[in-house]
Design brief:
By secondary structure, this protein is mainly alpha-helical. Among the domains are: about 90 residues; about 110 residues; about 60 residues, 2-Layer Sandwich (Herpes Virus-1). About 60% of the residues lie in helices and about 5% in strands. The protein is built from 14 helices and five strands. A three-stranded antiparallel beta sheet has the order 2-1-5. Strands 3-4 form a two-stranded antiparallel ribbon. Helix 1 packs antiparallel against helix 2 and helix 1 runs antiparallel to helix 3. The protein is extended.
Length: about 375
């Protein structure tokens, strides 16, 4: 509601400013027209022997300008504009409290972790010089390992932006086993992109050779995708005008760049979003509630700093809601490295030990306790929180 109030106030100011500007231009045009007519009368030479009555021309001009009343015409719209500006300022001051220090609490932070989070944020953005400056000034040599890892990721992404998949394919090949463990088919998607590029820019024979070398291993598990790619062979060099023109859509490169970034961060044990940017965004969203709470507590002479738990919930969007702990709904056991959460094909999640008890065998089919779907242990995928 507050954001809508700001927008409404801004829209009113913009409307009044537009009306004021239009009225000003109209009055200026009227005054200019009268002055030009007076000048033309001064310069009139129809009868050189007859003297020009300058005084009467100026008197007539003065009368017309007084009739127009430019100051009176401009006063009202300018007054309305100033009123709207004043109201807009009050809405901004009410909504965007400039003194956010009221919501500040003395918290003992681990400055080593904070420094590493800040440096990591710049490394994620590709600002390596800035990240290095933070590390050097803070004296955090342990954070340099993150630099080399994110540097490799940015080199791969930069190559992909110019349609060069070779660095990405090398990285995927080197991390094939880890990617398989997390259920990723990134390697297939990258080879698909490369196959389409070869087919479009090379010969049909080159594309067929590439498919036999790099796509054939995926044929048994991805039959539909493989058949579609083989159908593309009929349209070598002219995919844009074929039934498979969608494969040439640039959106595939954008999506692949984002997916590779996510998978890269996953293998690093890092979140895709920068922890610093997430913390700032969540803080901005929760700040109005905290400011109101601090003001109310101050009015009741209660100590904000001494409070151990917030008396009211701080509502945040779903992207800021994280669950770092999983409790199995069947066994009620908390997830751990030895007993991790596993996702069934029906998307229900149980702990690994519960799944093993239900299946009684790694090859036996078992029924999900929450829906009629059946699954095997091999079909379950470990979840990483």
């Amino acid at each position: 509601m507050e954001l809508h109030s700001i927008k409404d106030a801004f829209d009113r100011v913009a409307k009044k400013q537009k009306l004021s500007s239009s009225k000003s231009q109209e009055v200026i045009d009227q005054v200019g027209c009268e002055i030009e007519q007076a000048l033309s009368m001064f310069q009139s030479t129809h009868d050189p022997t007859a003297p020009i009555d300058h005084k009467s021309i100026l008197s007539e001009l003065k009368f017309k300008l007084n009739t127009i009343g430019p100051l009176q015409q401009l006063e009202e719209p300018q007054k309305e504009l100033n009123t709207s500006l004043t109201k807009c300022q009050k809405v901004l001051e009410k909504t965007l409290n400039p003194d956010i220090s009221k919501a500040y609490r003395n918290v003992d932070f681990d400055f080593h972790i904070v420094n590493q989070i800040i440096a990591s944020h710049f490394y994620r953005q590709g600002l390596f010089d800035l990240g290095d400056s933070i590390i050097n000034e803070a004296g955090e040599p342990d954070a340099t390992a993150l630099r080399s890892q994110f540097f490799e990721m940015h080199q791969i992404l930069q190559a992909m932006r110019v349609r060069n998949l070779q660095p990405a394919l090398v990285w995927v090949s080197a991390n094939r086993e880890k990617l398989i463990q997390i259920g990723s088919n990134l390697e297939l998607k990258l080879h698909t992109l490369q196959f389409v590029e070869v087919l479009q820019n090379g010969s049909r024979a080159d594309a067929l050779k590439y498919a036999r070398t790099y796509l054939a291993p995926f044929a048994s598990l991805h039959k539909d995708e493989f058949q579609k790619l083989m159908g593309c062979l009929l349209y070598a060099g002219r995919i844009e005008s074929s039934p498979y023109s969608e494969l040439r859509n640039p959106i595939h490169w954008e999506m692949m760049t984002e997916e590779l970034s996510r998978q890269f961060c996953t293998l690093l044990g890092q979140s895709y979003e920068s922890p610093l940017s997430v913390a700032v965004a969540a803080g901005v969203q929760g700040l109005p509630t905290l400011l109101k709470l601090a003001i109310v507590m101050a009015a009741k002479k209660q100590e904000w700093q001494a409070m151990k738990q917030l008396p009211v919930p701080v509502e945040l969007d779903k992207e800021f809601q994280f669950h770092s702990i999983f409790v199995c709904p069947v066994s009620r056991d908390q997830g751990s490295e030895e007993n991790p959460p596993m996702q069934l094909p029906c998307l229900h999640v149980l702990c690994k030990q519960s799944i093993m008890k239900l299946s009684k065998s790694s090859t036996r089919t078992f029924k999900c306790p929450y829906c009629p779907a059946e699954a095997t242990v091999a079909q379950c995928r470990q979840l990483y929180f």
